[in-house]
Amino acid sequence: MFTDSPLHQRRRPLTEREISTIPWMALLAEHERERAIDDLRVTDAAAGEYVCRMGRPVTYWFGVVDGLLKMSSDNAQGQTMTFTGVPPGGWFGEGTALKREAYRYNIQALRKSMVAGLHVDTFHWLLDHSIGFNRFVMNQLNERLGQFIAAREIDRMNSPDVRVARSLASLFNPVLYPGMGAVLRITQQELAYLVGLSRQRVNEALTTLAAQGSIQIEYGGLRVLDLAALRSQVLIKPAG
DNA sequence: TCATTAAATTGTT
DNA sequence: AACAATTTAATGA
After folding, report:
1. Chain segment A89-121, per-residue pLDDT in tens
2. What phi and psi values does residue A122 have, to the nearest 5 degrees?
3. In this complex, which residue's CA is closest to the C1' atom of nucleotide B8?
4. Predicted model pTM
5. Domains plus CATH for chain A?
6. Which of A64, A106, A127, A154 has the most C-beta neighbours closer than 10 Å?
7. Phi and psi dihedrals of A7, rounded to 5?
8. Any idea which nucleotide's C1' is nearest the CA of A199?
9. pLDDT tens profile A155-210
10. In the structure, how far is the CA atom of residue A143 from the C1' atom of nucleotide C9, in angstroms?
């Protein structure tokens, strides 16, 4: 996006506060950190705006500083499949950045968000020089693999309540999204886009989960009271 | 700071 | 999809 959209003009260096939200910064040595910070840029993405599109060449490795993004892909039939949401603290695109391929999915802002970008060349330089960075990326890849496998499970269940619960739980993954508190700022409409259900159905599911005591619904967001309960929502297979 | 108004979000049909 | 009710954000005195 930084190179082929109006976002290119709006990017700027990060503030100290924004840098402190980047989970892998603490793993770098001083000179590595300097180089990373020197290259890092952030930009605003308006609601609905694409951060990157399928097929475009990889220029940056992305991280969410603020807001909420949606990772999805379009199949041959033109249908859209949502993989996951990316909350603040989440970094993505390392798989494609590693291979310097084109993006394999779309990243779209669900609401006004702030996105950081590290140039692929710097990404590779860090891989070549920092063990801590390698550890982070490896951990990240492994954790995302687990998340995607879980996402396949979620897609195959047709109980909306369970889908909402498990999708919510995946947003609270402590490895992929460290620093997530108990509260998640997400509207029911945004969650609906993420899970692929109607807002009404999401509202109903959230009410059920709140009644179970797993979450607490708040205006413009929700509070997780029992993450384990969200994760362990059981599949209820229909008869036949 | 408070009151008023507009906008966003939720709950319900 | 539409509507009413509720909550927050913005405005200006």
Report:
1. 999 999 999 999 999 889 999 999 999 999 999
2. -70, -40
3. A220
4. 0.86
5. 6-153 (2.60.120.10), 158-231 (1.10.10.10)
6. A64
7. -60, -25
8. B10
9. 777 789 999 999 999 999 999 998 889 999 999 999 999 999 999 999 999 999 99
10. 38
